[in-house]
Amino acid sequence: MEISSIKALFYIGPVPITNTMVNTWFFMGLVIALFAFLTRKLTIVPETKSQVVAEMIVNAIDDFAENSGGKKAKDTYAPYFLSLFAFFLMCNWSGFVFWGIFRPPTADIATMLPLSFATFCLIEYNKVKSNGVGGYLKSFLDPFPLFLPMNIFGELAPIISLALRMFGNLFAGLVISTLFYQLYVNNGFVVAYTCVIGILLCILIATGNFTKLRNALKGIESKAARRIATAGIAILCIPILASTFIHAYFDVFSGAIQSLIFTMLTVCNVGDAMGM
């Protein structure tokens, strides 16, 4: 199982179509489908739960954009900010939701660099629009011409920093989860063992016997025997708990934080370029 690898799935002429590209299209489709579902049958007064959720999301991104980037940024680019955040969150959480089936596109620098470049172009466009071409070019000479190379580097740095921040965190989590899953691939006993324990736990939860098991453990009179039995059950669950923790931390927690950071930096930089 080579989850962390980028592969060419097929070719269109000489152009390779990689798993990152296919997964990107898939998650873009999910985001579009989700928003289409939430915004169907809109009315002036909300009559469906989906419209209520949609309005809550729109109000949240509007408040976030106005507080971080100013009213101009909110009025002009709130849909762009929402699209970025929704796409990143969908991609980053895919490892947890689909349990390692999909390789998150955000763990590929080839995905993050174009998105960072798009944000960079948006920032530079608004700087030119706000200051004029002359004022924009003059800013590279501030406070005096000797700072020209440093100012140019300062303008280009966000492309790299925005891309590498999310890519580094997501790729690190992907590598760790891949190494963990390699244990299953290389050890057939662990595969069978984990599957059996997982099925048994699902049966216990579905049939309501999990509570009975817990009560049975509490009913053991000997403390030593009760601790040994509890430890034995915990050891049986280690593979499942470990994989759950890995995905919960690196995909859900870190993925949400990185999505928020990328979007927040975009909002702040665009708002600053527009003069807030």
Structure report:
By secondary structure, the protein is mainly alpha-helical. The chain contains 10 helices and 2 strands. It has a two-stranded antiparallel sheet. A hairpin with a 2-residue loop joins strand 1 (8-12) and strand 2 (15-18). The two termini are 49 Å apart. The mean pLDDT is 78.
What is the fold's blueprint, element by element?
Elements: E1 8-12, E2 15-18, H1 19-38, H2 49-69, H3 71-92, H4 94-97, H5 109-138, H6 148-186, H7 188-206, H8 209-218, H9 223-236, H10 238-274
Label the overall shape: elongated
Strand order of the largest sheet: 1-2
Whole-number average pLDDT? 78
Contiguous low-pLDDT stretches (5 residues minimum) are none
Provide key terms for this protein:
single chain; 276 residues; mainly alpha; 10 helices; 2 strands; 78% helix; 3% strand
What's the quick description here?
The chain is mainly alpha-helical and 276 residues long.
